[in-house]
Amino acid sequence: MAEVHRLDPMSRVPGNTTVYGAWERFVRGEDDLRGVRPEVAISWHRCRDKYGVDPGLTKAPIAVAEVDHTLEHDVVFAELGFRAASVAHEVSNVGGVVTVADATGRILAEWGDPATRKLAAEANLSTWFCWSEQATGTNGMGTALESHAPVVVRGAEHWCQAFHDWTCAAVAVRDVVTKEPVAVLNISCWRSEPPSAAGAWLGNAATRTQRTLRQRARDASAELVAAFHHARSRAGVALAALDPAGRVVIADDMAGVLLGVPSSTPATDPAVRWNPRLPELIKAAQYAVKQAARDPDWIGSTQVHTHLSDEPSSVTIRPVFLSGHLVGNLVSFGVAEGEQLPRGERGAPNQQGRADRIVAVRENRMVLLRLPEVAFAESEGNDVWLSTDQGRLRAASGSLDKLENDQGDAGFLRVHRQYVVNLDRIREVERGFKGELALVMDDGGNTMVPVSRRNAPAVRRALDI
């Protein structure tokens, strides 16, 4: 039998610098997080301030009976189940259990040491119970679903005190197109560490599964491109094909101008598709995906602003399927057919699911910034730098696209390929001789941020100028 490394459970050690001491203070409402890893601190903030999870919870709640997911997700569940079962013996030898859960945190299957499974059952760490952060606080499965990286949650890092004797290592598998979580793979050990190879095994399992998803996404792109060419041969309007996340796979010449993307060259690889940076269109496309999942014959229309004009254009959205699986939408400009989209799906603010903080890095610590503290973000090489009330800080996420997507509803707007600004922190707007715009920011230094010609119409609409 492999050696079992027993832990000080971390849940019974008081003091100002221990994780348990920080946990005690934080659940009382204090924000002193000395000694807590940044990713755990962020999770605790979600549990306390966003989800309101009771730290005295002793068992996970039962999962909801009806959960919508696609056949694509079933492929992931089957593959992860195979990989979990293949290492169950090794994990069992160190007293651990392996679980596979879906995107809601509902455990679908469990393998491992019988004695540990009995202990796990006392906390409802078993099939059909929910381990999302929203339901059960900081834990391996739930926190991995919120994160884009593998996570380890040890002892008192768990939000609920009843789980402080557990250590969990987990990784989520995400849809390669939408980046939404599909499933999560987890190893849990009671008062001991997972096997030393657990991290490599989890990473390998996720990588192999996402490789399958990536190939299927390429197949879906080929079907979407074929549908585009077929429709283009019959239609005399500007036409584009968008994936389920609202990114452009292919567009004709006119649609390319309207969307601000290259035309006629298909982007079949999900990693290199174009973001049109038109929130109204992206939300409309995502709404269409939900409607088409319920009714394959659904067609809808709305009006969106494009990069060519300050006036909105009519668009019609038609879903495209491959073997019953929705692969994206065809968008026709200048026509309005089918159901009118609800007004709330045309770019109105949607607070649900939006992060109310931006995470920055200072040396080896993460800084949790409230949105009003951030004046603008600037892309510089592979990094994103934030101009904040605490000075210039590097963003934890190196992607302006992610910042724009996460905070677009909160007044953050892309104004240039290198800049996203907080509209509430614009002090002045300067016009150039040829009509170009520059924004003078309220950041202590009156920094001037350029506005690209492509983004100028959106800026004028947002500022009503």
Structure description:
The protein has 465 residues and is of the alpha+beta class. It has 3 domains: 178 residues, GAF domain (Beta-Lactamase), CATH 3.30.450.40; 127 residues, PAS domain (Beta-Lactamase), CATH 3.30.450; 107 residues, LytTr DNA-binding domain (OB fold (Dihydrolipoamide Acetyltransferase, E2P)), CATH 2.40.50.1020. 30% of the residues lie in helices and 26% in strands. It contains 11 helices and 21 strands. A 7-stranded antiparallel sheet has the order 13-12-16-15-14-18-17, with helices on both faces. Strands 7-6-10-9-8-11 form a 6-stranded mixed sheet, with helices on both faces. Helix 3 runs antiparallel to helix 7. The radius of gyration is 24 Å and the shape is globular. The N terminus is likely disordered.
Layout: helices, strands, pairs:
Layout: H1 19-27, H2 38-51, H3 71-93, E1 96-102, E2 107-112, H4 114-122, H5 133-136, H6 140-146, E3 151-154, E4 166-174, E5 181-190, H7 198-232, E6 239-242, E7 248-251, H8 253-259, H9 279-294, E8 300-304, E9 313-322, E10 325-333, E11 339-340, E12 357-362, E13 365-370, E14 374-380, E15 383-388, E16 391-395, H10 400-407, E17 412-416, E18 419-422, E19 426-431, E20 437-441, E21 448-450, H11 456-463
Helix pairs in contact: 3-7
Pfam families: LytTR
Keywords: DNA-binding
InterPro entries: GAF-like_dom_sf, LytR-like, LytTR_DNA-bd_dom
